[in-house]
Amino acid sequence: MIFKTAFFSLASLALVVNAVPAIVPRAEPGLISADCIDVFLRGSWLVGSCLTGEGTTRVQSSVYLSSKITNREGTISWKIAGGYGASCKDCKIINGSSLNCQCYVTGRASTRNTTLNLDEHIHNYRGHLLTDQFGTPVVPPTSTVPVPTDFSWTLSMGASNCFSDRPDYDISFCRSTTNNTTQPCNSYNDVESYDAPVQCFAWRMPISTPIWMEFEKMRANAPSKAIEFLVYDNMDCNGEPFDSVKPGEYGTCKLFPQAARGVRTKMLWNADSS
Ligand SMILES: *[C@@H]1O[C@H](CO)[C@@H](O)[C@H](O)[C@H]1NC(C)=O
Ligand SMILES: *[C@@H]1O[C@H](CO)[C@@H](O)[C@H](O)[C@H]1NC(C)=O
Ligand SMILES: *[C@@H]1O[C@H](CO)[C@@H](O)[C@H](O)[C@H]1NC(C)=O
Ligand SMILES: *[C@@H]1O[C@H](CO)[C@@H](O)[C@H](O)[C@H]1NC(C)=O
């Protein structure tokens, strides 16, 4: 989309002022080691300042690595929803673009020294570090929000009620018929994360039968003031969100026009949080 716009505007520019050579944004992805400076890890995020392809202009962007890499018996490798962060420590970037960690092996107290070349699946797309694990990425619009130093966030829900997608489950023990919107956002309903984005959070009751909670109220907090929490009417966060909690609304127990069943984090800085 963005690409097309750039192409058309450059094309029409070239028609009008033929003498000026058009600066064509780089279409091909570039290597981290060749295009980026100040490359480092912050939590499980890879951060770098990469050339946009227009002169010396750079964009600072970030990629969440833990959802893209796994630890298998002390060796890290590419895997969607991998979660290496939970079983590796002392991770750092070496040799410009390789992730080096000390990772645990099942049943052993010791770790193994393991390295993965990030150039294999993360590239610079016109200033944005993005993964190609899901196919050629769409280059997002450039944000001016800096990559935060603290990625943590918390949510508390209120005006909640249970539901089930299975007609054979008896939910009368938890189902309220009053839809009580005076119920506050309680801290015992907290969901918190140290640094992870979520594609879709659905709130399951802590019982063996899979029964879920919907909520008409939510309070959000994030020290970065740079996460928007999108709310959906379904547990898979399909379709368009019907509402959201923006940084300016943090700390308040926001009442939605309808019950929410799924929440997705939208990072407001340049972030590949897939
Ligand atoms: C460091 O990077 C260079 C160039 O990409 C590569 O040839 C070399 O094997 C790498 N060294 C290690 C230890 O990964
Ligand atoms: C792990 O291996 C890397 C690359 O081979 C090396 O640079 C680093 O010093 C090693 N780290 C430890 C703790 O042995
Ligand atoms: C309570 O909310 C559910 C949907 O969340 C709706 O189907 C139901 O009609 C509501 N009940 C009342 C009494 O408003
Ligand atoms: C609604 O929730 C409030 C606060 O939790 C509670 O005091 C009140 O009794 C509830 N009302 C109904 C009708 O359940």
From TrEMBL:
Organism of origin: Melanomma pulvis-pyrius CBS 109.77
Keyword field contains Signal: yes
UniProt entry keywords in alphabetical sequence: Signal
Residues of the signal peptide: 1-19
InterPro entries, per the entry: Cyanovirin-N (IPR011058), Cyanovirin-N_sf (IPR036673)
Keyword Signal carried by entry: yes
Pfam families: CVNH (PF08881)
Cyanovirin-N domain location: 33-131
Stated name of the protein: Cyanovirin-N
